[in-house]
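Please fill in the sequence for the structure shown.

STRUCTURE ENCODING:
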């Protein structure tokens, strides 16, 4: 089932969140762990579990609480909108090949680079990984083609960034050139400036120090005021 588990808490900074999994024996090594010190969801001992099911384009499809009936959970994940694998490959039997494929499927850092390196050779695992690589290359080529042809926008620029980061190990020269050009586009200057400031405030907000969090809050307010028409200006306004 193509599902990724994401666990977030307001109580621990990122390094401690990862250690928590090991120290408490949660056995959730393949989950994605996150820390949100601003705690927009108001998580507390009285409001611990907040579970959402997201569809492929990151919209909330349905909320699933910790005490949802089994039928509701089964219906959510067996529906036609429950999602599909990014890189469907039939007939994988080698354990190593399946593990590498799954890392790529879940967009783990450097997974594509590992796939490219691991697919070289004639062993059983390498032959299966060559099948995976063909599917992955075709998918990335299509995504590259679509984004290179997409209009000038912040969404296009950030999608190219994400594509290039995920595709490390593949040569996507057209995507790299398009991303570089958009980074210099006059139409996106305000958007990019707002994003840079927003990311700086995010870094301060992630600090456990109250002074840094206060500075982040003030910074978000300034971004919202200075860049009201930009994507990140509007995001900053929503955080006040």
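FILLED IN BY: designer on duty
SEQUENCE:
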């Amino acid at each position: 089932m193509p599902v990724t588990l994401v666990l977030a808490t307001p109580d621990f900074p990122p390094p401690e969140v990862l250690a928590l999994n090991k120290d408490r024996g949660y056995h959730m090594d393949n989950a994605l762990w996150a820390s949100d010190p601003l705690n927009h969801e108001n998580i507390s001992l009285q409001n611990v579990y907040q579970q959402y099911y997201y569809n492929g384009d990151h919209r909330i499809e349905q909320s699933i609480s910790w005490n949802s009936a089994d039928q509701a959970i089964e219906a959510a994940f067996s529906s036609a909108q429950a999602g599909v694998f990014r890189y469907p490959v039939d007939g994988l039997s080698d354990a190593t090949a399946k593990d590498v494929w799954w890392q790529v499927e879940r967009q783990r850092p450097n997974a594509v680079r590992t796939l490219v390196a691991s697919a070289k050779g004639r062993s059983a695992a390498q032959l299966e990984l060559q099948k995976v690589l063909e599917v992955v290359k075709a998918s990335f080529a299509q995504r590259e083609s679509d984004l290179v042809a997409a209009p000038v926008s912040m969404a296009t620029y950030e999608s190219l960034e994400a594509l290039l980061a995920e595709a490390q190990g593949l040569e996507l020269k057209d995507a790299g050139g398009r991303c570089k050009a958009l980074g210099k586009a006059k139409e996106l200057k305000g958007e990019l400036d707002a994003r840079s400031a927003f990311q700086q405030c995010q870094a301060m907000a992630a600090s456990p120090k109250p002074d840094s969090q206060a500075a982040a809050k003030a910074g978000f307010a300034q971004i919202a005021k200075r860049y009201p028409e930009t994507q990140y200006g509007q995001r900053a306004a929503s955080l006040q």
